[in-house]
Amino acid sequence: MPSISRRGLLRVGGLAVLASGLSPSALAAPVVSADLVVYGATAGGLVAAIQARRMGRTAVVLEPSNHLGGLTTGGLGQTDSGTAASIKGIAGEFYRRIHAAYAGTPVTPTSPARFTFEPHVARTVFDEMLAAAGVPVYFGLRLATVSKSGNRLVSVIGDNGQAFQGLMFVDASYEGDLMDRAGVSWTVGRESNATYGETINGVQVRSGHQFNFPVSPYVVAGSPSSGLLPGISSTPVAPAGSGDGLIQAYNYRMCLTQAASRLPFPRPAGYDAARYELLLRYVQAGWNGPFFTTHGVGAGKTDSNNNGAFSTDLIGGNYAYPTASYAVRDSIAADHRTYQQGLMWFLANDPRLPASIRSATASWGLAADEFTTSGGWPPQLYVREARRMISAHVMTELNCRGQSPIPDPVGLASYTMDSHNCQRVVVGGLVKNEGDVQIGVPGPYGISYRSIVPAEAQCANLLVPVCLAASHVAYGSIRMEPVFMILGQSAATAAMLALTASSSVQAVPYATLRARLLADGQLLQWPPPSAPGEVVVDSHDPSVTRAGTWVSSTSIGGYWGTDYEHDGNTAKGVNRLRFRPSLPEAGTYTVYLRWTADPNRASNVPIDIVHSAGVTTRSVDQRGSGGSWVSLGSYAFAAGTGGSLLIRTENTNGYVIADAARWLRTA
Description:
This protein is of the alpha+beta class. The chain has 13 helices and 36 strands. Helix 2 runs parallel beside helix 4, helix 2 runs parallel beside helix 12 and helix 3 crosses helix 12.
């Protein structure tokens, strides 16, 4: 009989199984069968299986590692949400459950969402959702081969011989291994700008996460004949926009704390101080940090990520990863762990660094109550990009910018087009990073159904919601955990509709799919359909009036319409902007304001709401709550254009943003 282990796991034939939904005898069968077989226990994969179960079908999840939840439970607790209001369906439910877990309140369709959380809280929420849906998860299942009948997958076989038969399949892995085994076309690396008519793909030497002080790349500073320091490419930099096979850097998202119980950063076996010589020189040239981010996620813990020219990203250390064997990937992941642990140890201990840097770093440590089976270190490598499918529609920069809307959306994305650096190079005798792109998008945009299904001739019963068809730079916007959940739900929905109709996934009528997605709470257009009594005024509306000078920008994503405006952080008190709605009828309206957030924004922006009873002044902090509607209260308004909302800039302590205002009738 299978043996029971912790977290409700069964041990079956050498595999650990999160036991829910199937009997022990079924779990132990030589061949496990289900309507839907999901490969990859990422957040997108788990949501796909949950959706299939909610549609009355059976589903199993196969995971090559022993970790459940991918990056969502692996340290990425500061969710890259973009426009949070566009995250609906099961993804939205997950984040509402996160809020409920902290608040101790029941989950309802109108519960608030929370996008920052500790890793163990995310794991608990997923465990509860999987148990409620009855989804078994098999761990340690590494693909050996697949069997096909014509253009259909029949089963996948693990390296231990265990077989899983399915009628439909979803590849939700970060690497795209199942789609590869199934014979589906894919690519790795950066396209040239010319490939899809883009402007920010390919080679990009930009200012983001760049060396701000001159640093020599050579072993002996200033001496090219001495050779290059570790991690620096000897290949000359190609022209801007050139395509190549390089991918953006990986790292681990650390959960840090300054609590007394913190675990000091370990000095890893294989520590090599030479790997950090560039950083030492950068500090000696004048850089004082920060060397990593410390975004709070709750309970005094952080989601800590790469920051600056030399940080937790192991630039150039991942090129072989996407197509490597499991053993080689393990080695690459181990090298990333050694590098990053060594970096933190170096920052906290190397006597050549200023004492201020060492003490500041040593004040942090790994959270002792997170990732307890791996010494507080996250088990999930942040695979930001690997294989990407090639299908009937490849998402591109034009789609992200809203310049080429797609007719068959199955979900929305809204995050900045974001690529971490891809290589470290020599330019003019100095070290430079290359590949960083951070370009905002106008707002949420649709992701094509055709981009998550392969060519029918290649595979008729497989969907790929994670390694979907997208150019390198478009994937940089789409590759966010909430989006993977959204696409996972849509993929499973399409698979179950195809199963019911005995058709290929490519033949599912979009109208049928759209209707079911909307019925299940997915959001497929932006702005969303107007609610009764809702009036939205964008900064470009003809009714908007201004004083002073306002500058249009798209630098930070999450804005309404085509851009947002700011005051240039100048002419304080002179610059003003007034939103004036045309209200269809008198009544009580809740007034909302929208902006894009950044640390350089003002935290004390005065807002005057002109309503039937007079003027109410509120103050908003534009350093947070970006890309969402922030309520300023409810007030009585007459019909017509007598009401307004005025953004003022007097005595403000940063950039003041004007994006859009909203009136929603509540009585």
